[in-house]
Each structure stands twice: as structure tokens, then as C-alpha cells.
Amino acid sequence: MTPLKELFDLTGRVAVVTGGSTGLGLQMAEAFAEFGAKVAICARKADRLAIAEAKLREHGAEVLTVVCDVAKPEQVAELHAQVMARFGGVDILVNNAGRAWVAPVEDMPLERWQQVFDLNITAPFMLAQVFGREMIKQRKGSIINIASIAGLVGRNPDAYNSIAYGASKGALVNFTRDLAIKWARHSIRVNAICPGFFVTDINRKVYDERPEKIDREIPLGKPGGDSDIKGAAVWLASDASRFVTGAIIPVDGGTTAW
Questions:
Q1: Catalytic: 160?
Q2: Which of 113, 165, 175, 235 is catalytic?
Q3: pLDDT one digit per residue (tens) for the chain, 258 residues
Q4: What phi and psi values does residue 63 have, to the nearest 5 degrees?
Q5: Where are the domains of the chain?
Q6: Within 10 Å of residue 167's Cβ, how many Cβ atoms?
Q7: What is the DSSP letter of 159?
Q8: What is the value of pTM for the model shown?
Q9: How far apart are CA 162 and CA 101, in angstroms?
Q10: What are phi and psi of 195, to 5 degrees?
């Protein structure tokens, strides 16, 4: 029987986290570093990556940063090339990069709808494809898709009004389930975390405009904090969840339990 501490140990494993320079991405990258993983993070802004790299190195981690827009196939290919050149393999992929566009349904511009889908579902497909090929060769790997409770239920527009975000995250939820079935034969596990409302750079303005309305939607009465997704991420990345695939896990303060 494997000791519990060993099951959670990520020493020597390689984790790729998209959108890893801030917010939930950085929180998860830090968690992997704390448990011994080598970490590759990507984002579109070099200055933010530099700040994130310094934080990760405080944990003694080996870190690779790559400026990358994961909605662009040629940049995904470059990210893959740099990860393989530096680390020679990949064990964990976290599809975290995402975006929203807040607007009433009747006013949602088609180009914004498409941009949200490009980043929230097409990019995870491309990343899973290129890094999944490496995992298939290794016959092991863990893919963690960061979906949202907006992909599980309809949302009150007074709290959050983005039809494109909810629809794209719903697509990511079922992408997770289907990919888990298809790649189980390769010993690749595919799961999704569905965060509730966390205050991050992408939605801070939304929260500041209506904190009481948003808090009322959460049974615990507050948004997620700066360590609240770490446990779920490490669990899904590690051998502690080696019999878990196709799972959709809300981390939402009880919001989907209403």
C-alpha cells in the first residue's frame, strides 16, 4: 500500500499550465511547484510571466516560461517544442487560459462570441492534441481542464451575464468526459475543475461592481480565495487520483448545491 504522502508527490513530473502567470493558473502552478514538479507556464504578457517565474522559483522549482497565445496553432506548436526541448516530456497539462465577454444575449457581438470559443474550447483541444501525443507515447498523463460552474448550470444575469462563457465552458465539460473515455486505453486521465466565483484579473471589475449580488449566489457567502483551488489541482495531477477520470469537480463554495 502506497503511503498517502507519496501518492500526492509530484517530484520530477512536468506540468504545463496555460494562463499560468496570474489568477487560478498561477495558484495551480505554485501548488505543483510546492509538491516538487517542474513547471512550464505560458501567457501572452512577458512582464507577468517574469513576475510569476520569480514566485515559482521561491519554491525551488525548475521553471520554463513561454509567451504564447494558445488560440493560435503556430504558437501552441512553439510552446510544445519548447517544453519538449527543455523537459523531454510532459506529465500534467492544465488547460486554464480562458476569457469571457459580458453582454446581454441580444447584444453579444458575433466576433466576441467566436473569440471566447476560440480560447475556451478550441485551444484546449489543440493543447490536448499536441501534448496528448506525448502522453500516449509515455502511456501516462493527467489532463485537467478548467471549466466553470457556468458550464454546468444557467447563471443569474444580475450576477454574471456572459452567454458565450457559459456555453463554451459547457462544451469543455463534455469535451472532458468524451476525451476521458477515448484516452483511458492509453492510461491518460482527463478531468475538469469547475470553479465558482474567484476574484481574478479577468473578473475583478465585475465583482467590484456588484459584490453583494455575487456573494448571495454562494452558500459560503464569499468568492474563492488565493489557495482554494490548489488542493483539487494537486489531487487530480497526482497518483492520489489515479482511479479518477472523466470527473467534473465543482470548487464553488456550494453554488451548484442550491
A1: no
A2: 165
A3: 899 999 999 999 999 999 999 999 999 999 999 999 999 999 999 999 999 999 999 999 999 999 999 999 999 999 999 999 999 999 999 999 999 888 888 988 999 999 999 999 999 999 999 999 999 999 999 999 999 999 998 877 766 678 999 999 999 999 999 999 999 999 999 999 999 999 987 788 878 988 998 899 899 999 999 999 999 999 999 999 999 999 999 999 999 998
A4: -130, 140
A5: 10-249
A6: 17
A7: T
A8: 0.96
A9: 6
A10: -65, 150
Nearest in space to 251 (alpha carbons), one of 22, 17, 28, 11: 28
CA distance linking residue 96 with residue 85, whole number of Å: 22
Rg (C-alpha) for the chain, rounded Å, is: 17
Give Cα separations from 24 to 76, 159, 196, 232 (angstroms).
20, 20, 11, 12
Both ends of the chain: CA-CA distance in Å? 38
Question: Which is the CATH superfamily of the domain at 10-249?
Answer: NAD(P)-binding Rossmann-like Domain (3.40.50.720)
**Given CA atoms 92, 83, 75, 33 in this order, what sign does their dihedral have?**
positive
The three-class DSSP label of residue 67 is strand
Give bridge partners of residue 18 from the DSSP assignment.
42
DSSP string, 168-195: HHHHHHHHHHHHHHHHGGGTEEEEEEEE
